[in-house]
Amino acid sequence: MVTTIEIKREGKTPSRVVAGEALKLLPEVLPAGRRVVAITDPNVMALYGDTIRTHSDRQIVIGTGEGNKTLDTVGDIYRQLIEMGADRRTYIVGFGGGIVTDIAGFAASTFMRGLDFGFVATSLLAQVDASVGGKNGVNVGGFKNMAGVFSQPDFVLCDTGVLRTLPPREFRAGLAEMIKAGIVADPELFALLESHSPDELLATHELLTQVVVAAIRVKAAIVEADEREGGVRRKLNLGHTVGHAVEKLTREFNHGEAVAIGLVAIADASVRLGVLAAADRDRILRVVERAGLPVSTSGMASGRVSGEVSGSASVSASEAVVGPVLGLSAGDISEAITRDKKVEGDGLWLVVIRQIGEVEVRRMSFADLAELLN
Ligand SMILES: NC(=O)c1ccc[n+]([C@@H]2O[C@H](COP(=O)([O-])OP(=O)(O)OC[C@H]3O[C@@H](n4cnc5c(N)ncnc54)[C@H](O)[C@@H]3O)[C@@H](O)[C@H]2O)c1
Ligand SMILES: [Zn+2]
Question: Fewer Cβ atoms within 10 Å of its own Cβ: the N or the C terminal residue of the chain?
Protein backbone atom coordinates (compact mmCIF):
# COMPACT_ATOMS: atom_id res chain seq x y z
CA MET A 1 0.00 0.00 0.00
CA VAL A 2 1.28 3.45 -0.90
CA THR A 3 -0.14 6.96 -0.80
CA THR A 4 1.03 9.52 -3.36
CA ILE A 5 0.96 13.24 -2.66
CA GLU A 6 1.70 15.57 -5.55
CA ILE A 7 3.25 19.01 -5.17
CA LYS A 8 2.96 21.40 -8.13
CA ARG A 9 6.21 22.69 -9.64
CA GLU A 10 6.68 25.56 -12.06
CA GLY A 11 7.27 24.39 -15.62
CA LYS A 12 7.58 20.72 -14.68
CA THR A 13 5.44 17.73 -13.81
CA PRO A 14 4.46 17.73 -10.11
CA SER A 15 6.92 16.49 -7.51
CA ARG A 16 5.62 13.12 -6.27
CA VAL A 17 5.94 12.13 -2.64
CA VAL A 18 5.13 8.45 -2.14
CA ALA A 19 4.69 7.05 1.38
CA GLY A 20 4.17 3.49 2.64
CA GLU A 21 5.81 0.49 0.97
CA ALA A 22 7.50 2.87 -1.40
CA LEU A 23 10.99 1.45 -1.91
CA LYS A 24 9.83 -1.15 -4.39
CA LEU A 25 8.73 1.68 -6.69
CA LEU A 26 12.31 2.89 -7.14
CA PRO A 27 12.84 1.16 -10.50
CA GLU A 28 9.63 2.76 -11.78
CA VAL A 29 10.40 6.32 -10.74
CA LEU A 30 13.99 6.35 -12.02
CA PRO A 31 14.24 7.43 -15.66
CA ALA A 32 15.11 4.63 -18.08
CA GLY A 33 18.25 4.85 -20.18
CA ARG A 34 20.02 7.46 -18.07
CA ARG A 35 23.03 7.09 -15.85
CA VAL A 36 21.99 7.15 -12.20
CA VAL A 37 24.38 8.35 -9.49
CA ALA A 38 23.33 7.67 -5.88
CA ILE A 39 24.51 9.92 -3.06
CA THR A 40 24.33 8.36 0.39
CA ASP A 41 26.13 8.11 3.74
CA PRO A 42 28.07 5.17 5.22
CA ASN A 43 25.33 4.13 7.67
CA VAL A 44 22.68 3.95 5.00
CA MET A 45 25.14 2.31 2.58
CA ALA A 46 25.89 -0.41 5.17
CA LEU A 47 22.19 -1.21 5.57
CA TYR A 48 20.81 -0.62 2.10
CA GLY A 49 23.90 -0.96 -0.10
CA ASP A 50 22.46 -3.84 -2.11
CA THR A 51 19.36 -1.87 -3.07
CA ILE A 52 21.41 1.26 -3.77
CA ARG A 53 23.86 -0.60 -6.01
CA THR A 54 21.06 -2.43 -7.82
CA HIS A 55 19.38 0.82 -8.82
CA SER A 56 22.33 3.09 -9.54
CA ASP A 57 25.36 3.01 -11.81
CA ARG A 58 27.70 4.84 -9.45
CA GLN A 59 27.62 5.72 -5.75
CA ILE A 60 29.03 8.68 -3.86
CA VAL A 61 29.31 8.25 -0.09
CA ILE A 62 29.53 11.43 1.99
CA GLY A 63 30.34 11.75 5.69
CA THR A 64 27.66 11.77 8.38
CA GLY A 65 26.67 14.66 10.61
CA GLU A 66 25.96 18.36 10.35
CA GLY A 67 29.71 19.08 10.15
CA ASN A 68 29.76 17.46 6.71
CA LYS A 69 26.84 19.48 5.36
CA THR A 70 29.24 21.96 3.79
CA LEU A 71 30.38 23.43 0.50
CA ASP A 72 33.53 21.29 0.80
CA THR A 73 31.38 18.16 0.61
CA VAL A 74 29.51 19.61 -2.34
CA GLY A 75 32.89 20.33 -4.01
CA ASP A 76 33.90 16.71 -3.47
CA ILE A 77 30.67 15.56 -5.08
CA TYR A 78 31.27 17.85 -8.10
CA ARG A 79 34.79 16.46 -8.48
CA GLN A 80 33.58 12.87 -8.34
CA LEU A 81 30.85 13.63 -10.87
CA ILE A 82 33.42 15.18 -13.22
CA GLU A 83 35.76 12.21 -12.77
CA MET A 84 33.01 9.76 -13.63
CA GLY A 85 32.14 11.77 -16.74
CA ALA A 86 28.70 12.92 -15.57
CA ASP A 87 26.76 15.02 -18.08
CA ARG A 88 23.50 16.93 -18.02
CA ARG A 89 21.49 13.74 -18.49
CA THR A 90 23.01 12.13 -15.42
CA TYR A 91 20.32 11.49 -12.81
CA ILE A 92 21.01 11.99 -9.09
CA VAL A 93 19.25 10.06 -6.35
CA GLY A 94 19.84 11.13 -2.76
CA PHE A 95 19.39 8.02 -0.60
CA GLY A 96 19.46 8.79 3.12
CA GLY A 97 18.42 11.13 5.89
CA GLY A 98 18.00 14.90 5.75
CA ILE A 99 21.72 15.59 5.55
CA VAL A 100 22.05 13.43 2.46
CA THR A 101 18.93 14.83 0.81
CA ASP A 102 19.87 18.47 1.56
CA ILE A 103 23.36 18.00 0.10
CA ALA A 104 22.32 15.78 -2.81
CA GLY A 105 19.55 18.22 -3.78
CA PHE A 106 21.94 21.17 -3.62
CA ALA A 107 24.70 19.42 -5.57
CA ALA A 108 22.24 18.16 -8.20
CA SER A 109 20.56 21.57 -8.57
CA THR A 110 23.85 23.38 -9.12
CA PHE A 111 26.09 20.91 -11.01
CA MET A 112 26.10 21.96 -14.69
CA ARG A 113 23.31 24.40 -13.77
CA GLY A 114 21.07 21.62 -12.62
CA LEU A 115 20.64 17.86 -13.01
CA ASP A 116 17.35 16.06 -12.47
CA PHE A 117 17.10 14.37 -9.12
CA GLY A 118 14.91 12.42 -6.70
CA PHE A 119 15.15 11.19 -3.12
CA VAL A 120 14.73 8.02 -1.12
CA ALA A 121 14.20 9.52 2.34
CA THR A 122 15.32 7.03 4.97
CA SER A 123 14.99 8.90 8.28
CA LEU A 124 11.65 9.92 9.74
CA LEU A 125 12.77 13.55 9.78
CA ALA A 126 13.68 13.40 6.10
CA GLN A 127 10.37 11.73 5.21
CA VAL A 128 8.10 14.20 6.95
CA ASP A 129 10.17 17.33 6.53
CA ALA A 130 13.66 17.62 5.04
CA SER A 131 13.14 15.88 1.73
CA VAL A 132 9.75 17.45 1.02
CA GLY A 133 9.39 21.01 -0.17
CA GLY A 134 12.39 21.75 -2.36
CA LYS A 135 14.70 23.55 0.04
CA ASN A 136 18.21 22.20 -0.39
CA GLY A 137 21.31 23.65 1.13
CA VAL A 138 24.44 23.51 3.23
CA ASN A 139 25.89 25.18 6.29
CA VAL A 140 28.51 27.90 5.92
CA GLY A 141 30.98 28.81 8.65
CA GLY A 142 28.85 26.87 11.10
CA PHE A 143 25.66 28.76 10.27
CA LYS A 144 22.85 26.46 9.27
CA ASN A 145 21.57 26.29 5.72
CA MET A 146 23.24 29.56 4.72
CA ALA A 147 23.71 28.59 1.07
CA GLY A 148 20.95 26.84 -0.79
CA VAL A 149 18.37 26.72 -3.52
CA PHE A 150 14.67 26.09 -3.94
CA SER A 151 14.40 23.09 -6.23
CA GLN A 152 11.85 20.31 -5.94
CA PRO A 153 12.90 16.69 -6.46
CA ASP A 154 11.05 14.69 -9.12
CA PHE A 155 10.09 12.17 -6.46
CA VAL A 156 10.49 11.42 -2.77
CA LEU A 157 10.05 7.80 -1.69
CA CYS A 158 9.17 7.55 2.00
CA ASP A 159 9.28 3.85 2.81
CA THR A 160 8.06 3.44 6.37
CA GLY A 161 9.69 -0.03 6.53
CA VAL A 162 13.20 1.46 6.50
CA LEU A 163 12.38 3.39 9.68
CA ARG A 164 12.77 0.15 11.65
CA THR A 165 16.54 0.31 11.28
CA LEU A 166 16.69 3.95 12.37
CA PRO A 167 18.32 4.53 15.77
CA PRO A 168 15.52 5.28 18.30
CA ARG A 169 16.91 8.75 19.01
CA GLU A 170 16.65 9.62 15.31
CA PHE A 171 13.10 8.29 15.18
CA ARG A 172 12.14 10.54 18.09
CA ALA A 173 13.77 13.50 16.32
CA GLY A 174 11.42 12.96 13.40
CA LEU A 175 8.49 12.86 15.80
CA ALA A 176 9.30 16.46 16.80
CA GLU A 177 8.67 17.65 13.25
CA MET A 178 5.44 15.61 13.16
CA ILE A 179 4.27 17.21 16.40
CA LYS A 180 5.07 20.56 14.80
CA ALA A 181 2.99 19.64 11.73
CA GLY A 182 0.08 18.69 13.98
CA ILE A 183 0.24 21.98 15.87
CA VAL A 184 0.51 23.99 12.64
CA ALA A 185 -2.42 22.47 10.80
CA ASP A 186 -3.64 19.02 11.84
CA PRO A 187 -5.24 18.48 15.26
CA GLU A 188 -6.03 14.85 14.34
CA LEU A 189 -2.39 14.11 13.68
CA PHE A 190 -1.57 15.74 17.01
CA ALA A 191 -4.15 13.57 18.77
CA LEU A 192 -2.71 10.40 17.19
CA LEU A 193 0.73 11.36 18.47
CA GLU A 194 -0.77 12.06 21.88
CA SER A 195 -2.34 8.64 22.12
CA HIS A 196 0.54 6.47 20.81
CA SER A 197 4.06 6.00 22.10
CA PRO A 198 6.99 5.88 19.64
CA ASP A 199 7.10 2.08 20.09
CA GLU A 200 3.41 1.75 19.27
CA LEU A 201 3.84 3.85 16.14
CA LEU A 202 6.78 1.73 14.99
CA ALA A 203 4.96 -1.51 15.71
CA THR A 204 1.97 -0.79 13.49
CA HIS A 205 2.79 -0.29 9.86
CA GLU A 206 -0.61 1.22 8.94
CA LEU A 207 -0.57 3.66 11.84
CA LEU A 208 2.98 4.74 11.07
CA THR A 209 2.13 5.29 7.41
CA GLN A 210 -1.01 7.21 8.43
CA VAL A 211 0.90 9.70 10.60
CA VAL A 212 3.74 10.05 8.08
CA VAL A 213 1.24 10.77 5.30
CA ALA A 214 -0.61 13.29 7.49
CA ALA A 215 2.61 15.17 8.27
CA ILE A 216 3.67 15.18 4.61
CA ARG A 217 0.24 16.55 3.65
CA VAL A 218 0.63 19.47 6.06
CA LYS A 219 3.99 20.36 4.57
CA ALA A 220 2.96 19.75 0.96
CA ALA A 221 -0.11 21.97 1.22
CA ILE A 222 1.87 24.84 2.70
CA VAL A 223 4.74 24.49 0.21
CA GLU A 224 2.32 24.47 -2.68
CA ALA A 225 0.70 27.67 -1.42
CA ASP A 226 4.03 29.44 -0.89
CA GLU A 227 7.03 27.67 -2.42
CA ARG A 228 9.51 30.48 -1.75
CA GLU A 229 8.54 31.36 1.79
CA GLY A 230 7.05 34.80 1.26
CA GLY A 231 4.17 34.20 3.66
CA VAL A 232 2.35 31.11 4.86
CA ARG A 233 5.43 28.84 4.57
CA ARG A 234 6.87 30.72 7.52
CA LYS A 235 4.42 28.73 9.66
CA LEU A 236 6.67 25.71 9.17
CA ASN A 237 9.31 27.52 11.21
CA LEU A 238 7.23 26.94 14.34
CA GLY A 239 9.62 26.06 17.15
CA HIS A 240 12.62 26.65 14.90
CA THR A 241 13.59 30.18 15.98
CA VAL A 242 14.45 28.99 19.46
CA GLY A 243 15.33 25.53 18.12
CA HIS A 244 18.04 26.83 15.81
CA ALA A 245 19.48 28.95 18.61
CA VAL A 246 19.61 25.90 20.90
CA GLU A 247 21.31 23.90 18.14
CA LYS A 248 23.80 26.68 17.62
CA LEU A 249 24.64 27.06 21.30
CA THR A 250 25.04 23.45 22.32
CA ARG A 251 26.28 20.09 21.11
CA GLU A 252 23.71 18.29 23.19
CA PHE A 253 20.74 18.15 20.93
CA ASN A 254 20.03 17.01 17.40
CA HIS A 255 17.75 19.07 15.18
CA GLY A 256 14.52 17.36 16.22
CA GLU A 257 15.35 17.61 19.91
CA ALA A 258 16.16 21.30 19.54
CA VAL A 259 12.84 21.79 17.72
CA ALA A 260 11.02 20.00 20.55
CA ILE A 261 12.56 22.45 23.05
CA GLY A 262 11.61 25.30 20.72
CA LEU A 263 8.00 24.08 20.50
CA VAL A 264 7.63 24.00 24.26
CA ALA A 265 9.28 27.40 24.62
CA ILE A 266 7.00 28.97 22.05
CA ALA A 267 3.91 27.29 23.50
CA ASP A 268 4.83 28.83 26.82
CA ALA A 269 5.47 32.21 25.20
CA SER A 270 2.12 31.97 23.38
CA VAL A 271 0.35 31.53 26.72
CA ARG A 272 2.15 34.59 28.08
CA LEU A 273 1.11 36.55 24.99
CA GLY A 274 -2.48 35.59 25.80
CA VAL A 275 -3.13 33.77 22.52
CA LEU A 276 -2.91 30.13 23.68
CA ALA A 277 -4.84 28.43 26.47
CA ALA A 278 -2.66 26.99 29.24
CA ALA A 279 -4.39 23.61 28.77
CA ASP A 280 -3.19 23.46 25.16
CA ARG A 281 0.33 24.36 26.23
CA ASP A 282 0.19 21.47 28.68
CA ARG A 283 -0.94 19.09 25.93
CA ILE A 284 2.05 20.18 23.85
CA LEU A 285 4.39 19.64 26.79
CA ARG A 286 2.96 16.17 27.38
CA VAL A 287 3.10 15.06 23.75
CA VAL A 288 6.75 16.14 23.57
CA GLU A 289 7.47 14.15 26.73
CA ARG A 290 5.55 11.14 25.44
CA ALA A 291 7.69 11.16 22.31
CA GLY A 292 10.74 10.90 24.56
CA LEU A 293 11.95 14.35 23.52
CA PRO A 294 13.47 17.05 25.76
CA VAL A 295 11.15 19.83 26.90
CA SER A 296 13.93 22.17 27.98
CA THR A 297 17.68 22.63 28.01
CA SER A 298 17.72 22.78 31.81
CA GLY A 299 20.06 20.45 33.57
CA MET A 300 22.69 21.36 31.03
CA ALA A 301 24.10 24.28 33.00
CA SER A 302 26.89 22.14 34.42
CA GLY A 303 29.53 23.26 31.96
CA ARG A 304 28.17 21.21 29.12
CA VAL A 305 27.31 24.26 27.05
CA SER A 306 29.77 24.90 24.26
CA GLY A 307 29.89 27.27 21.36
CA GLU A 308 30.18 24.60 18.71
CA VAL A 309 29.10 26.57 15.77
CA SER A 310 30.33 30.10 16.22
CA GLY A 311 32.93 30.85 18.84
CA SER A 312 31.24 34.00 20.06
CA ALA A 313 28.08 32.07 20.85
CA SER A 314 29.72 30.13 23.64
CA VAL A 315 28.46 30.64 27.17
CA SER A 316 29.99 29.59 30.42
CA ALA A 317 28.13 27.54 32.98
CA SER A 318 27.89 30.47 35.36
CA GLU A 319 26.18 32.59 32.71
CA ALA A 320 23.60 29.96 31.93
CA VAL A 321 20.33 30.42 33.74
CA VAL A 322 18.38 27.29 34.48
CA GLY A 323 14.85 28.44 33.84
CA PRO A 324 11.66 26.46 33.69
CA VAL A 325 11.86 26.27 29.93
CA LEU A 326 15.32 27.16 28.77
CA GLY A 327 18.52 26.16 30.52
CA LEU A 328 20.38 28.73 28.49
CA SER A 329 19.91 32.33 29.45
CA ALA A 330 17.33 34.16 27.40
CA GLY A 331 20.08 36.61 26.47
CA ASP A 332 22.15 33.85 24.88
CA ILE A 333 19.15 32.55 23.00
CA SER A 334 18.20 36.05 21.80
CA GLU A 335 21.78 36.76 20.76
CA ALA A 336 21.94 33.55 18.76
CA ILE A 337 18.55 34.30 17.21
CA THR A 338 19.68 37.67 15.86
CA ARG A 339 22.19 35.79 13.72
CA ASP A 340 19.65 33.34 12.34
CA LYS A 341 19.19 33.62 8.58
CA LYS A 342 15.46 34.15 9.10
CA VAL A 343 16.24 37.57 10.56
CA GLU A 344 15.06 40.59 8.58
CA GLY A 345 16.20 44.01 9.81
CA ASP A 346 15.74 44.56 13.54
CA GLY A 347 13.39 41.67 14.07
CA LEU A 348 11.95 38.48 12.71
CA TRP A 349 8.76 36.60 11.96
CA LEU A 350 7.84 34.58 14.99
CA VAL A 351 5.30 31.77 14.75
CA VAL A 352 3.02 31.71 17.77
CA ILE A 353 0.37 29.12 18.60
CA ARG A 354 -3.31 30.06 18.83
CA GLN A 355 -4.58 26.54 19.35
CA ILE A 356 -3.56 23.04 18.33
CA GLY A 357 -4.01 23.14 14.57
CA GLU A 358 -3.71 26.91 14.21
CA VAL A 359 -0.68 29.15 14.32
CA GLU A 360 -0.05 32.80 13.54
CA VAL A 361 3.01 34.49 12.07
CA ARG A 362 3.89 37.71 13.88
CA ARG A 363 6.49 40.32 13.20
CA MET A 364 8.52 40.78 16.37
CA SER A 365 11.42 43.05 17.27
CA PHE A 366 14.47 41.56 18.98
CA ALA A 367 13.74 43.66 22.06
CA ASP A 368 10.22 42.24 22.36
CA LEU A 369 11.47 38.74 21.67
CA ALA A 370 14.15 38.98 24.35
CA GLU A 371 11.51 40.14 26.83
CA LEU A 372 9.15 37.36 25.81
CA LEU A 373 11.79 34.67 26.25
CA ASN A 374 12.69 36.01 29.65
N1 LIG B 1 15.45 21.02 3.50
C2 LIG B 1 14.56 21.14 4.45
O3 LIG B 1 13.47 21.67 4.25
C4 LIG B 1 14.88 20.61 5.80
C5 LIG B 1 13.88 20.49 6.76
C6 LIG B 1 14.19 19.93 7.99
C7 LIG B 1 15.47 19.50 8.25
N8 LIG B 1 16.44 19.63 7.31
C9 LIG B 1 17.81 19.18 7.56
O10 LIG B 1 17.82 17.77 7.75
C11 LIG B 1 18.99 17.44 8.48
C12 LIG B 1 18.68 16.40 9.52
O13 LIG B 1 18.17 15.25 8.89
P14 LIG B 1 18.17 13.84 9.63
O15 LIG B 1 17.66 13.99 10.99
O16 LIG B 1 17.55 12.87 8.73
O17 LIG B 1 19.74 13.56 9.82
P18 LIG B 1 20.75 12.56 9.15
O19 LIG B 1 20.69 12.63 7.68
O20 LIG B 1 22.04 12.82 9.81
O21 LIG B 1 20.22 11.13 9.60
C22 LIG B 1 20.26 10.77 10.95
C23 LIG B 1 21.13 9.53 11.19
O24 LIG B 1 20.38 8.37 10.84
C25 LIG B 1 21.10 7.58 9.91
N26 LIG B 1 20.09 6.94 9.08
C27 LIG B 1 19.31 7.53 8.14
N28 LIG B 1 18.39 6.64 7.70
C29 LIG B 1 18.58 5.48 8.36
C30 LIG B 1 17.93 4.23 8.37
N31 LIG B 1 16.85 3.97 7.63
N32 LIG B 1 18.41 3.27 9.20
C33 LIG B 1 19.48 3.52 10.00
N34 LIG B 1 20.12 4.70 10.05
C35 LIG B 1 19.68 5.67 9.23
C36 LIG B 1 22.03 8.53 9.23
O37 LIG B 1 23.16 7.86 8.71
C38 LIG B 1 22.39 9.48 10.36
O39 LIG B 1 23.41 8.92 11.14
C40 LIG B 1 19.51 18.74 9.09
O41 LIG B 1 20.68 19.13 8.42
C42 LIG B 1 18.38 19.73 8.81
O43 LIG B 1 18.85 21.05 8.64
C44 LIG B 1 16.16 20.17 6.10
ZN1 LIG C 1 13.13 21.27 11.22
Answer: N
pTM: 0.90
Ramachandran region, residue 152 (left: φ > 0; alpha: ψ -120 to 50; beta: rest): beta
| Domain membership flag for residue 222 | no
Rounded distance, CA 372 to CA 80, Å? 49
Distances (CA, A) of 145 to 60, 270, 278: 21, 27, 34
Domain count along the chain: 2
Consecutive 10-residue averages of pLDDT for the chain (374 residues): 92 94 97 97 98 98 95 98 98 98 98 97 97 93 89 97 97 98 98 97 95 97 83 92 87 91 95 97 97 80 32 30 51 74 78 97 88 82
Catalytic residue, chosen from 10, 28, 83, 113, is: 113
Has 229 been annotated as catalytic?
yes
Within this chain, do residues 259 and 142 fall inside the same structural domain, yes or no?
no
Confirm or reject: Cβ of 129 under 6 Å from ligand 1.
Answer: yes
Amino acid present at 28: E
Measure 88 CA to ligand 2 centroid, in angstroms.
31
Q: CA-to-CA distance for 317 and 319, rounded, in angstroms?
A: 5
Q: What are phi and psi of 358, to 5 degrees?
A: -150, 120
Nearest to 131 by CA among 60, 212, 36: 212
Distance 139 CA to ligand 1 centre (A): 14
- Whether 153 and 298 map to the same domain: the answer is no
Distance 135 CA to ligand 1 centre (A): 14
